[in-house]
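[09:14] KT: can someone run the structure on this one? pasting the chain below
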Amino acid sequence: MGKRDYLDDYRKNNRDDYEERIRRRNPAVIAFVLTLSTILVVGIPSIIALSNIKTGKVKEEKPLFANWELIPEATVAENIVVDESQTRSGITISEGDEDYTHIIGTASDDAVTLGFAGDILFDDNYAAGNSFKLRGNSPYGVIGDSLLEQMKGVDIMMVNNEFPYSDRGEPKEGKAYTFRARPETASILGEMGVDIVGFANNHCFDYGETAFLDSLTTIKNAGVEYVGAGANLEEASHPVYYITDNGMKLAFICATQIERISNPDTRGATDTSPGVFRCMDDTLLLEKVSEAREKGAFVIVFIHWGTESTTEIDQYQTRQAREIVEAGANMIVGAHPHVLQKIEFIDGVPVFYSLGNYIFNSKTQDTCLILTTIHKDGAVNIRFVPAIQSDCRVNEATGSEYMRIINEMNQMSPGIKIDGNGYITS
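[09:31] RB: done, structure tokens below
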């Protein structure tokens, strides 16, 4: 007999005596007990909730008296979990993927966490880059402590690297803005917690082929992976794979389509020459997505697209987003517009059209950090962390600014809901 059954039986067999004792109790004592119970059960949680609402941000702790729920349960790859041969004790890597596959540990045995942020710039000839230089090539004091903590806390962190690293080369003639950072600034990536950068964009070739190739070496030497660029098309278009020691496989694919002419400033890679993975014609991109999905990977497409300085989505983004989803992508993250754009789910797949500037210039504008948790049971949690870039710094938004950004993103993104914790559901 369980504890609850025993008490019920006792009360049934001794009901008269039990009710008499209740009647004899001091009414004042009863009132006190009831009041105290109400305070404990209702009052304290209410005070905590009101306190959190007042700050504009609901804390992430597990709710009182409740179990954690997996939200949102977005549609993800049916085969996220790789077979037992792809664990740390005996890893099987597909032929041709050996140089692009990395085995990593994870903080959790049951999930892998990813972080995404938008455009960064370390060129100290510009205000944002100089902000890092003034702090000894360090992100501390440039990126807020709470953001850095979250960036370092995920298993894989990715940003858009919108410039080359080199002391060589000449600026592209006729181009309005050309960027180039000192090679030693690549160490900032590690201090930011960055593991992989998207390098398919319209500025990585600003100082020509020599500086571009210097960048590939410099990024690797900093202990960071790049994707979307390479010494040839095979390297530029090849996914970067991560296999976790808890048996999960992820693929990162990066491409750019914003220079929509046959002879762009940023050279597209060929079979025999270096450059970026261009996808205005997305045939090869869709093939790479399908291949990665067939290999049992959760596929993230990090794409440079859209129109600068507008929240409006253009026709190319609309068309390619659906094509990429249909090819098998599990998540799409966009860059280039330098402002936040809407979020939507296409057939259950989350699409972030633009993450905007993360730390790119001195303007005051909204930005964000995207945190994604992929569980082994197939559930995916995605959290939008509102932030503000201002005066060559970026900090997590708080109070009314926190809720303002969330509300504006909700208004911009019909069909999705960002709650007070930043969690996104469709």
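[09:33] KT: thanks! The first helix runs from residue 3 to 13.
[09:34] RB: yep, looked fine to me
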